[in-house]
Design a protein that fits this description.
Largest sheet: none
Strand content: under 5%
Number of domains: 1
CATH topology: Helix Hairpins
Helix content: over 70%
Shape: elongated
CATH class: Mainly Alpha
CATH architecture: Orthogonal Bundle
Radius of gyration: 17 Å
Number of strands: 0
Oligomer: single chain
Length: 99
């Protein structure tokens, strides 16, 4: 794949993630949208590392994947607690949990 193709792919993934974050009210859909955005960044890191000829971007991509896994674990724990307390996973009901 050429660099232009990879950049088009990652920009499309990132835009889909932003659209999902703006329009969705479901907590799981928000997590999936954030994952799309993080995957776009990871593909960019690997693509630019390939262009530069080094492995630095690939090392950063591995760290990005590890951070993504941690984010998913924390996010799913919050969603499970929200569902246990409210029997729904809408983000609007999460504001009531503050007090």
């Amino acid at each position: 794949m050429t660099m232009q193709t990879l950049l088009l792919l990652t920009s499309a993934l990132f835009c889909m993630g932003i659209y999902g974050l703006v329009t969705r009210r479901n907590a799981i859909a928000l997590l999936l949208s954030a994952e799309l955005m993080i995957n776009a960044v990871t593909i960019n890191l690997v693509a630019f590392a390939r262009l530069a000829g080094g492995v630095t971007g690939q090392v950063f991509a591995v760290f990005t994947i590890a951070l993504t896994v941690a984010e998913v674990v924390v996010g799913l724990a919050i969603v499970i607690l929200l569902f246990r307390w409210r029997r729904e996973i809408a983000i609007d009901s999460a504001n009531e949990l503050r007090h």
